[in-house]
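Students often ask why we bother encoding 3D structure as a string. The short answer is that it lets us treat folding as translation between two languages. Here is a chain of 339 residues written in the first language.
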Amino acid sequence: MRNLRKNHHYVSQSYLKAWANNHNRIWTYRTLVSHSSVPEWSQSSIKSIANHQHLFTRSIVGDDSDEIEIWMDQEIESPAQIALSKVRTDDSLSKHEWEQLLRFVALQDIRNPERYIEQLERWKLDMPTIIEKAMQTALSKMKADSSKGRIPTDKDNGDIKLIPIRVTKEIGTESELGHLKTEVLLGRGVWLFSIRHLLTATYKVLNEHTWSILRAPGELHWITSDNPLVRLNYYENGSYDFKGGWGNEGTEIFFPLSPELLLYTQVGNKVKMNNVTRVLARTLNRFIAENAHRHIFGLDPVNEMSGVVPRIVNHVAYEHEKREWETWHVRQKKLEQEY
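And here it is in the second language, the structure alphabet:
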């Protein structure tokens, strides 16, 4: 019987190897630490970072399944390895290889904890409206199909089963009429559905952009992080945020490919950027660092990093976050079983 995959990396190990030494260790700067005595930069093994136990495991009738983790590996990570290797050695990519590379880039954007936290806040605001529209659509289908003597089914979206959802009917004792109550658990299941949906269809908008590959100038190296895709909205006079979209006009999207190469586009701009100044490169590195969740990675330590992203030294917060991820699977599974 096949062993269940339990240790799930939300940043690909094959990606991080570009910044690692011959012993697969990478310089790491942590944005949250338990004590001030923790060194600002330390070397970590790639196998031990940017991962959590059962992050993408789903519970099916009480049993654990790693089908999403396997799907991401077999359908996206593994096929992209040729494209990653070629782009890092300055070889040209075919159209198909570009598509594989950009799907891999999209994967690195949406499956990390920072993205989950960001989406969770949006789901809390949007989910009531989404449920209401879905219920109205379902009722309309039922009415339309009632004359045909069958119950309508949704064959086009089998991934809907990933969402923990509970529908109950409430009918008063003195009435034949009632109403349906729909509850959705906002957590891992909705996240897995979102990942499948975005990486099946939505990511294709990235293929429409004009991409440049920028070489780091001089002795400067690109850094990367545990949230490596930057979606920058830059307004004016230093005003900016990282809430851009894959298809939003004007959003600048960039992704470090290696310490030497960085993938860049501005949505709507069809002109390629051929080179980058040292000043701009340092600015892009600052954005990469600020966009990080808990880890910044470099080929070498960056001495001024504490001035760019000051560390949070908080033992209570550090231990709380550690426990939250250690108990993630148990808590999510218990809630999912109720649905």
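Translate back mentally: The chain has nine helices and 17 strands. Keep this in mind for the problem set.
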